[in-house]
């Protein structure tokens, strides 16, 4: 490890995380890269070296999350299905400032509900009040 890769005692690379936050966030969230690939890109493109644990710590501090808790995904899935059946409208959801990918919702429904009718499932009102993601009707492409 050369001087540019040296670590402070607290584990943070000397270059500083804030100056690389935009690139790290873009790679991880917008390009949907796994942490290992983000690390490689940051090393290759910016000369920024940090370990997986440091990235996870920064993501936690920055409030960056890729995964959506199961109770929120259940709410999203049920709401989407009911709105489609009752109003004939598609629904897009935004959670933590990012649009929830329809394929991710479909995969969750397929794995979690295995063909059960979502319209018959109760909607947890507590989840609805506390965790309601933003939703809207997307315009046709």
UniProtKB/TrEMBL annotation:
Pfam families: Clr5. Residues 14-66 form the Clr5 domain. Transmembrane segments: none annotated. Residues 119-141 are annotated as: Disordered. This is Clr5 domain-containing protein. It comes from Canariomyces notabilis. The lineage of its organism: Eukaryota, Fungi, Dikarya, Ascomycota, Pezizomycotina.
């Amino acid at each position: 490890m050369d001087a540019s890769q040296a670590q402070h005692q607290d584990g943070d690379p000397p270059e500083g995380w804030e100056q690389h936050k935009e690139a790290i966030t873009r790679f991880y969230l917008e390009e949907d890269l796994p942490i290992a690939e983000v690390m490689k890109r940051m090393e290759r493109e910016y000369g920024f070296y940090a370990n997986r644990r440091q990235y996870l710590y920064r993501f936690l501090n920055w409030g960056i999350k890729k995964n959506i808790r199961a109770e929120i995904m259940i709410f999203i899935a049920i709401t989407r299905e009911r709105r489609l059946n009752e109003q004939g409208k598609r629904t897009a959801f935004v959670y933590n400032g990012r649009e929830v990918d329809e394929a991710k919702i479909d995969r969750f429904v397929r794995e979690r509900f295995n063909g059960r009718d979502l319209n018959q499932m109760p909607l947890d009102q507590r989840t609805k009040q506390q965790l309601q993601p933003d939703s809207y009707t997307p315009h046709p492409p």
